[in-house]
Amino acid sequence: MELRVERDALADAVVWTARSLPARPPMQVLLGLLLEVGPDESGATGLEISGFDYEVSSRVRLPATADVPGRVLVPGRLLSDIVRSLPAQPVDLRLEGTRVVLTCGPARFTLPTLPVEDYPALPAMPTTAGTLGSDVFEAAVRQVALAAGRDDTLPVLTGVRFEIEGDTLTLAATDRYRLAVRTLTWNPSDPDVSTTALVPARTLSETAKALTAGPEVTLALSGSGSTEGMIGFEGAGRRTTSRLLEGEFPKYRSLLPSESTALAEVATGPFVEAVKRVALVAARNAPVRLGFSADGVVLEAGGADDAQASEQLECGWEGSAAGEPFQIAFNPQYLLDGLGAVDSDTTTLSFTGPTRPAVLTGKRDAVAGAVADYRYLLMPVRLSG
What we know:
Shape: elongated
Largest sheet: 9 strands, antiparallel
Number of domains: 3
Radius of gyration: 25 Å
Strand order of the largest sheet: 6-2-3-4-18-17-16-10-14
Number of helices: 6
Structural class: alpha+beta
Oligomer: single chain
């Protein structure tokens, strides 16, 4: 095997693929990246770089000049460290016996190889389910995945639920303290499709970011709802497959209130900055307290024997009897996460009570009764006394 490839393209491909390599693999060969040189379906010669850990597979194809086709397995993280340090010159790769020689300008590296014959076959891409714009997909994943749990002892909460009904795609995630839901339209291959899938949030987030270089993302599904279920994403010359998570996702729709008893509208930017400032005096896991009234919103944090902070902002307010401020408290980081995900210069907070979850959305739709395409439900922190 012998080839020449552009340094930047190689570095991007190797670094992205190496991110999926397992830290403690069941087999040493899974620490390797598979480099394959040969023609694609159109006959164009290129280099395909792949990684696999039996749960997630990643592969990317890039243009290359090659005289000798072939395949080789090299230590993935070592190759990633090397290509990121190379000068901005073309990279030559050549297989010499059981070693790979990498040359880039004055730099030369010799890498050991792993037994390529022991490397497992990568899973095939599932059946195409539809497409959507890559920017829209990345934004939706970013808005929702932040609410997924990080506790691996509750794996069902570490995923993002996909719900597909015709041309409507809904993403949802929850860690029991907050819930994020985003609804968008997409282009299904089958207009009558109806299915669900639970996708690992971490894999989904990294994949969505990586595919924004292309105009659209292809989503593929197989065996949805079964233990053998798999999802695939493809775009910008990159392809990822992931096994679906098992388990019953919470029936989250019942948590979303159908109406509210009070509403506040506040400028998002100033609200974010005020929360950050006031939270500086909040002890670990202590909340930021919010008091809404016709005069605006007052943010407070700290205790009688500790540092204290308060700040008042203008806001629109509907609800609560005159002279009776509405008091509620939130984990400041969870509140900031929601404000950042709303993606609007105005945030609407809907309340049904000081001990009931609040719902954050963007500026209210001019159409009465319209449901926001993004909703962030946040559990309040109970205040003593």
